């Protein structure tokens, strides 16, 4: 008489639990449900383990958040490499800002981690930041201007993206704003535009203004 076939497992075999898998699951959880939804217990549930099992790989939740920052910076570096910007400083800094914004658009719930943990983000992105800084210095900018330019580009993307996320789905002109001013009044149009969600055209315009201003700081050859 043949022995009965083994009962199939209810759950498919999972890959071994490690720091990388935990970080990816944390990013997915944040993407889907927001930063406030992340807890050791809930993350463990997403991974099919007890929350305590995560402490074998991370001391606390803050370490997991730092690992998520690392993932975001890695994605930024990959996007920048794929974009293959030209050698000129302007194209380099423009592509740098655009790729950073792409990360913000892909992970709006997690992106604030790069604003609240700036020093950790810089540590993870040292190589990427150094490459752009090198192009600015090679173009002739002094060190203070080059560093300030890169920091300004990063802060512009962060600020723009955080406002965009905060107003998504809610920004619309109120009846009072719609009715204010004449149709040809530029101030009225400005107020109406402020109440709308920022768009790509405004982002590109602001970035171009930053780059145009920076170009005036370049010593004449």
Features:
single chain, 221 residues, mainly alpha, 11 helices, globular
Overview of the molecule:
Mean pLDDT is 85; it is low at 7-11. The N and C termini lie far apart (92 Å). The radius of gyration is 23 Å and the shape is globular. It has helices at residues 19-33, 40-47, 61-83, 89-106, 112-116, 118-124, 126-139, 143-167, 175-179, 186-194, 200-215. The longest helix is centred in the last third of the chain and has 25 residues, at 143-167. Helix 3 packs across helix 4 and helix 7 packs across helix 8. It is mainly alpha-helical.
Low-confidence stretches: 7-11
Distance between the termini: 92 Å
The percentage helix is 55-70%
Largest sheet, in brief, is: none
Q: Which sequence of SSEs, written as H and E, runs from N to C? A: HHHHHHHHHHH
Q: How would you sum up the global shape?
A: globular
Strand content: under 5%
So how many helices? 11
Write a concise synopsis of the structure shown.
With 221 residues, this protein is mostly helical.
Please write out the topology.
Blueprint: H1 19-33, H2 40-47, H3 61-83, H4 89-106, H5 112-116, H6 118-124, H7 126-139, H8 143-167, H9 175-179, H10 186-194, H11 200-215
Helix pairs in contact: 1-3, 3-4, 4-7, 4-8, 4-11, 7-8, 8-11
